[in-house]
Amino acid sequence: QYGHSLGVIAHLIYDEGLGRKLYGFDVWESGVSISGEAIPSVAWKDAFQAVNAALSASFLPVGQVLLVRGQFKDSLPETETGGLALVHLDCDAYGSYKICLTQLWPRLELGGIMILDEYGTEKWAGATRAVDEFLTFRTDAELLHDAKFYIRKRC
């Protein structure tokens, strides 16, 4: 999960019995994205502590969920995740999407899914632009749509 709607995703993964580790990357504060785009301020002040506390109080096994605080450009290269089956990008801005796509695509397993939360929205046109640029020369990615747009990694 790249963005902060982590609790819902964590419970879904646990409920499905996949037993995989879940990583939640976010800056966990309001302000400006790494690309300089303004991010609307929401209740961020205590978001990290609130999500961490909720996960600690949940039925998820200790160590199943790892919250990683920091900008994607720093935290993604520094964190060894192993192969990823599902990536949910909810990071709003062009620069954040660009970094996440570049860093996470090589980790996505064949058949893996990358959900694109803001793709195709007017409010976050930069996210759409970053994804479109990323897909331009890719032969191993298939853009699909159901409730959200997503990319499936193929051979």
Descriptive report:
There is one protein chain. By secondary structure, the protein is of the alpha/beta class. It has helices at residues 6-15, 47-57, 72-78, 94-104, 125-135; strands at 22-26, 31-32, 38-39, 65-69, 84-89, 108-116, 141-145, 149-153. The protein has a 4-stranded mixed sheet with strand order 5-6-8-7, with helices on one face. Strands 1-4 form a two-stranded parallel ribbon. It has a two-stranded antiparallel sheet with strand order 2-3. The mean pLDDT is 82.
Summarize the structure.
This protein has 155 residues and is of the alpha/beta class.
Write the layout of secondary structure elements.
Elements: H1 6-15, E1 22-26, E2 31-32, E3 38-39, H2 47-57, E4 65-69, H3 72-78, E5 84-89, H4 94-104, E6 108-116, H5 125-135, E7 141-145, E8 149-153
Parallel strand pairs: 1-4, 5-6
Antiparallel strand pairs: 2-3, 6-8, 7-8
Helix pairs in contact: 3-4, 4-5
Q: Could you state the oligomeric state of the chains shown?
A: single chain
Largest sheet: 4 strands, mixed
Read across the widest sheet, the strand sequence of neighbours is 5-6-8-7
Order of helices and strands: HEEEHEHEHEHEE
Number of strands: 8
Radius of gyration: 15 Å
By secondary-structure content and strand pairing, the structural class works out as alpha/beta
Treating each run of at least 4 consecutive H or I residues as one helix, how many helices? 5
Percent of residues in helices comes to 25-40%
Distance between the termini: 24 Å
> Whole-number average pLDDT?
82
Strand content: 25-35%
Return residue spans where pLDDT drops below 50 for at least 5 consecutive residues. none
Overall geometry comes to globular
